[in-house]
Amino acid sequence: MIDDLSLPPDIAGRTVDAKPGPGPAPGGGEVLRLDDLRVSVHDGAALAVRGVSLSVRPGEIVGLVGESGSGKTLTCRAALGVLPPGCAVDDGTITFAGVDVTNLSRRGWESVHGSQIGAVFQDPASYLNPSITVGSQLAEVLRVKRGLRRRAAQARAIELFEAVGLHQPDRVFHQIPAELSGGMLQRVMIAIAISCDPQLLIADEATTALDVTIQAEVLELVRQLRDQRDMAVLLVSHDLAVITEICQRIVVFYAGEIVESGPAREIIERPRHPYTQALLRVASVGDFRRRELEVIAGQPPEVGAEISGCRFAERCPVAAAGCRDGSIAPVTVGDQHQVRCVRAHEARYAGELAAR
Amino acid sequence: MSSGAVQAAAGRPARGRRSLIGPRSVLRLPSARVAIAVLIGIGILTVFGATLAPQNPLTINANALFQGPSSHHLLGTDYLGRDVLSRLMAGTRLSVLTALEAVGIGLVLGTVPGVATVFLGRWFDFTANRVTDALMTLPSIFFAVAVTAALGNGLVQAMVPIGILLAPFFFRVTRAATLEHARAQYVEAAELLGASKLHVVRVHVLRKVLPTIAVTTASMTAAALLSVSFLTFLGIGVQPPAPTWGGVLSSDLDYLAQAPWAPFIPGALIAVTVGALNALADAFRDRSGAGTLLLTAPAAVTPETLERVDDDRRSQPAA
Amino acid sequence: MTAAPATAAASEPLLEIESVDVALGRGWRAATILRGIDLRIWPGELVGLVGETGSGKTTLARTVTGLIRPSRGRVVFGGTVISALRGGARRAERRRGHLQLVFQDPLRSLDPDMTVAGIVAEGLKIRGGLGQEEISRRVLAALEKVGLDATLLSRTPGQISGGQRQRVSIARALAAGPRLLLCDEPVSALDASNRNHVLRLLAELRDSLGLSIVIISHDLSSLAGIADRVIVLYRGRIVEDGPVGQVFAAPRHPYTALLMASAPSVQHDRPLTAHQLRRTRADPEPPPGPDACVFAPRCPFAIDACATQPALEPVSGRWVAACHRRDDWPGLARDRAPAPGRPDSDHPEAVPPPAP
């Protein structure tokens, strides 16, 4: 029995082809746009994010994937205005719903956070006050941001708990974080994040610490919330398999740069960058029987290392002479599909990649 | 790589963030530098005070009573015409050594059971805690007075009860620190390798508890010094005319009308020394993290540690 | 890639856990974490023990190693009843080093003030009777086995990466000369590429040293490709136990199937979706009572018979499963809706079980 809501059910397993929601608003611009973003760390000593440009349209789920230190988390934090001490945006612009927020003051960010951007991070328990009920924490957000009165805020909070799939939401309202499991806490965090109907939801490794069955539920929840609210989602994970579960566009980070970006289906079926291909080889394919496990040889460069040429060349199985000079600019290889590789257009290259 | 290198690497105490008390790192704090300078001065006086004194501290000069500071008597003279500066310098030894005696007694009586109690089972722990509770109810000065009444009026005898009464503080602090470290997972790992409790204490716990003990020692020395001053102020353990800080203070107060400035001098000396000890204790605490409970928090939130914390958090999956 | 150990059937089990119950806490607050655990590990096999938070998997590892005493039943290792050992006898048995536990979090299980050399050598020093030369030789051999360079010898855990720490933890266990290695979440903290490095290492240890290895994890991707056998634990009971090829081709317990369906994967060709295996509000109430099947509250296929906990019954050969409906639930699952209409997860996510 299918519950109400007139959305057609997805065909079994074909989540990659998921409908992109109601679609971008007519004449709608991008929700988030990063142009040539550069973020330095250690008080300017090292450049950790090196010229990242990406955009998120309304109703889109975009996935950022990369190893630790690839810059995807810093990019997110910059977009949220919450860079750690010692890190700063050196160059580039961050535009949110058409407004330049690159150098926004703290006061300015306060009006953006929550009401326009919501965020969920990895460890929900550390973002909640352990001695106050989760319900009152959500109600407080509603009172402060939406000006609701106490009773209205409580009612709305219970509604939100229901919307994120919490069982017995009125009971959960009165529970403190210690009484809830990790999955439930993450749902509470999602409820808080979407409570003011933000245009963008950022989920930074939001499911990494959850049990796998709960992770699947939370990912489905995010997708359903996007469908219902036409909200854009930026999903960040080191696990490509998680990204492919619900994302329509995938952006691959390596050593501070975007090495490939494009529609999820394209990236999975026809990856054009050797690193993306390597990631696909090591990603989980849902086959748990005995088989040879792939690895990516070598280590990523130190954060901020200055390298001439392609930053992946050292580990690349098809690196050629031209890969090590100058900076490598992204080239377009398909509809919305870009790759940062000088060999992307060579006919021979595709064959070499396939042979690996 | 040679076995000698392995050996050397294995035996070398690590210089981690939370390792041994690093005297070098403590010296970076300006307050610690000042404190150490003061204490070195006091230390010199303890050893050489009597010989460095410009005048004989016992010489009575009936013609020079209650004099203010002058070139001959830098801090003036007291009610018997004796040079105040010399008396204080000579008195340092008695005051400081007896304070150290008390701290020494407290340290041994407190820290050894403090560490042992974590490993010796519930009954020992219960007993030790109750003894500690009982000792902490005794008022120190009265106890000291009672003991000297029984054992004879000597400062050495008087400091023994002070030492005994300092032991509970050492015990409690050491026990708490040992408990925290004894519950660490690497201790469990060592137990799984078949380690005896002695091995665990020797290899994993002792080194980490030392900073806490050092901090407590500095604080308790300050307390002991105050106790000495108070006792000698009361006249306990004083064989006149031997000078002590508290004794000088006491006699100054007797003749307050004639020399109102006088008590400030020994008072300041006591205060500065006690202050320096406490500042040193604070510096140790700040630098070594002794007494903090965060075992794995990164020292600073940088991008690498951000990734690393995320990295490590991933190892704790929740439902 | 070697086939499943041919001699497994003929040899004696290395580890036998017989009807073990484990309860933690005292008096009225006692909670039973494990119930009726019966399992055997044979020499040379790599077993994946899978269970979510609250399943008792870490408690089981700690019980086997003697950190926790079972309230019922016994643990036999290499012929010795190790659960009955105390004091000096237990220490002596541990010093033999045949049973080793690799803890979940190397940041906590490695002394931050010890060097790598000291850490790896510690077990050998505790054992005593070995000269410095011999100890050094074994330390270097252990480090080489896990693929670590001797340059790390004088570093402390804080000075090396997460992946390296994990390997040091494994090296410490290896230096003791184990026959059985229990690894608690060995790869959960690592990203996909590092994960496969460590998994390959474990597989190689099984192949080259003939070790038995038990990988304890909350998700299947931690054992994908290398495990010979999988044991699924749910709320303190074993629900399925069998060879990976057979279990993953056609799981007999719905929870096993749910784990498989929930695992994120880049290939979306799942025979059953997670949604088909979750209870929804439309499903009948599960039978209540303390003796009901542990999975019943979450099971969409629970019937009245599930009011009694099913026993582990053989499916074929060494494959066992505990489900009353083992033969008919797969058909029912296929007939269910493959995707949800709106967030409706109705699993009573109970209070998290007490921490061990």
List the helices and strands and how they pair.
The complex is a heterotrimer of chains A (about 350), B (about 325) and C (about 350).
Chain A (H helix, E strand, L loop, with lengths): L31 E10 L4 E11 L4 E5 L6 H9 L7 E9 L2 E2 L5 H7 L4 E4 L13 H13 L3 H14 L5 H5 L8 H13 L5 E5 L7 H18 L2 E6 L2 H7 L2 E6 L2 E7 H6 L4 H9 L48 E4 L2 E3 L7 H9 L1
Parallel strand pairs in A: 3-8, 3-9, 6-7, 7-8
Antiparallel strand pairs in A: 1-2, 1-4, 4-5, 9-10, 10-12, 11-12
Chain B lengths: L2 H9 L11 H4 L3 H23 L31 H33 L5 H16 L2 H12 L3 H28 L2 H8 L4 H38 L10 H10 L9 H25 L14 H11 L6
Chain C lengths: L14 E10 L6 E11 L4 E5 L6 H8 L7 E6 L2 E2 L5 H10 L2 E4 L3 H4 L6 H12 L4 H14 L16 H14 L4 E5 L7 H18 L2 E6 L11 E6 L2 E7 H6 L4 H9 L50 E4 L2 E3 L7 H6 L22
Parallel strand pairs in C: 3-8, 3-9, 6-7, 7-8
Antiparallel strand pairs in C: 1-2, 1-4, 4-5, 9-10, 10-12, 11-12
Helix pairs in contact in C: 4-5, 4-6, 5-6
What does this protein structure show overall?
The complex is a heterotrimer of chains A (356), B (319) and C (356). Chain A has 356 residues and is of the alpha/beta class. Helices cover 31% and strands 20% of the residues of chain A. In chain A, the strands form 2 sheets. Chain A has an 8-stranded mixed beta sheet, with helices on both faces. Chain A has a 4-stranded antiparallel beta sheet with strand order 2-1-4-5, covered by helices on one side. In chain A, strand 7 (200-204), helix 7 and strand 8 form a beta-alpha-beta unit. In chain A, helix 3 crosses helix 4 (150-163), helix 4 packs across helix 6 (182-194) and helix 6 runs parallel beside helix 7 (212-229). Chain C folds into 3 domains: 11-98 and 178-194 and 206-227, Rossmann fold (3-Layer(aba) Sandwich); 110-177, no CATH class; 250-334, no CATH class. In chain C, strands 6-7-8-3-9-10-12-11 form an 8-stranded mixed beta sheet, sandwiched between helices. In chain C, strands 2-1-4-5 form a 4-stranded antiparallel beta sheet, covered by helices on one side. Chain C starts with 14 loop residues before the first strand and ends in a 22-residue tail after the last helix. Classes of the chains: A alpha/beta (356), B mainly alpha (319), C alpha/beta (356). Chains A and C meet through helix 6, helix 7, helix 8 and helix 10 of A and helix 7, helix 8 and helix 9 of C.
State the gist of this model:
Chain A has 356 residues and is an alpha/beta fold. Chain A has helices spanning 72-80, 106-112, 134-146, 150-163, 169-173, 182-194, 212-229, 240-246, 264-269, 274-282, 347-355; strands at residues 32-41, 46-56, 61-65, 88-96, 99-100, 117-120, 200-204, 232-237, 249-254, 257-263, 331-334, 337-339. Chain A has eleven helices and twelve strands.
